[in-house]
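Supplementary Note 2. Why include the ligand at all?

Several targets in our set were suspected to adopt different conformations when bound, so apo predictions alone were not considered sufficient. For every target with a known small-molecule partner we therefore ran a joint prediction. The input for 2-OXO-4-methylpentanoic acid is given below.
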Amino acid sequence: MTTENLTIQITKVNESKITQVDWENLPFGRVFSDHILIMDYINGAWKTPEIVPFDNLNLHPATSALHYGQAVFEGMKANRMVDGKISVFRPEMNAARFRESCARMCMAEIDENVFVSLLAQFIKIEKDWIPQKEGYSLYLRPFMFATDSYIGVKPSDSYRFAIFACPVGAYYTEPVNVKIEEFYTRAANGGVGRAKAAGNYAAALYPAKLAQSQGFHQLIWTDAISHEYIEESGTMNIVFVINGKMISPSEDSDTILRGVTKRSVLEIAKMWGIPVEERKVSVKEVIEAAKNGSLEDAFGAGTAATIAPIAKIGFRDEVFQLPAIETRTLSNKIKTYLDQVKSGEIQDDNNWCLKIN
Ligand code: COI
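The joint prediction is reproduced in C-alpha cell form.
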C-alpha cells in the first residue's frame, strides 16, 4: 500500500457532539472527537481504511491482545496555527517509532508514509475539534492491537490499527514531583523498553502508585542492573541542566523510549550553542548537583507532557527542592520556541511541522 493509492472510506456522524463540549474544562484524555479511523490487517494485507463515527469496539473475549499483550501506541498533537492551517509536529518520527514498536512486538508493520497520510486525512475530518485556545491541542492516539481470537501464545495473524482524538490541555497542570526508583524496574536490556508497548505502562503502574502514595506524581526510572543510572520518567523522557550544560540519558541501550520532544529539545539547545551531553547520567551526580546548587533545571519532555518542569526530586529519605520555575530560563525559552513553531508564530526553520491546509 502506498500513499498514492490510499483511499479511505468515510462515514460521517449525523450530528456532531462538538456543541456538548465544555471547552473551559477539558480533562486530559476524557473527551473524544466524533470519528475514529480503523484499518484491519487480515490474511497478510492491510484492508481499506475507514473513518467511521466514534464508538466502542466489539471484541471477541479471546482477542489475543487482551491475553498476550500485543498492543502498541503513539501520541501526537494537531495544533491550530495563526494562519488557520493545522500543524503536526514531526509525525514522521512517530511513524518510524510506531513501525519499530510493531517490529519488536512481532506485529504487522505500517509503511511510515501511509501512517502519516492516514493521520493527516483523519485530522482533516476532525479539524473543528482542534482547540483554538493557547496551550490546547487535539491529541491523536494511533494504536494497534492483535485481533486473532485464539487461546495460544503466538504472534497474531490479524491486527487492528486505529486513530482517535481528544481535545486536550496540559497533561500536568502543575510542576511535577518525582521520586528516583531504586527497586522496581521499567525496562531491562534486551526487553521492550524502547517500544511504545502498552504493557510497559501497565508494568509501571504499581511502582508509580506507591510513589503517588508518598506525594510524588511520577517516578524517575533507573537502570535494571545497578539502579545507579537514570533512564526516563514515567510518562516522559528526562533532561537536566547542570552548570549550564544540558544532560540527558543516552538512548544507546534498548531500555529508553526515543522521545520526539526530547530529541527536539536537545536539537534546539545545540542550535543555540548550549553544551549538550547525551550519556549515562548517574543518580549520584544529579543528587550531588541538587545538594551543591548546580542543578539549575530538571524537566520532563513528552508529547502529552510537553516540557514539564520538575519541582522536587525524592531520593531515599530526602526530597530536593529545585530552583523556582521562573529562574529556568533555558527550558522556558525552549518551550516557548516549540509552541511558537507549532503555532506558526515563528518560522519553522527545521521544517519540523507537517502543515495541513
Ligand atoms: C505521550 O506523551 O503522548 C504519551 O503517550 C504518554 C502518555 C502518558 C500520555
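Residues 75, 235, 302-305 surround 2-OXO-4-methylpentanoic acid (CB under 6 Å). Residues 32 and 166 are 5 Å apart (CA to CA). Comparable summaries for the other entries are listed in the accompanying table.
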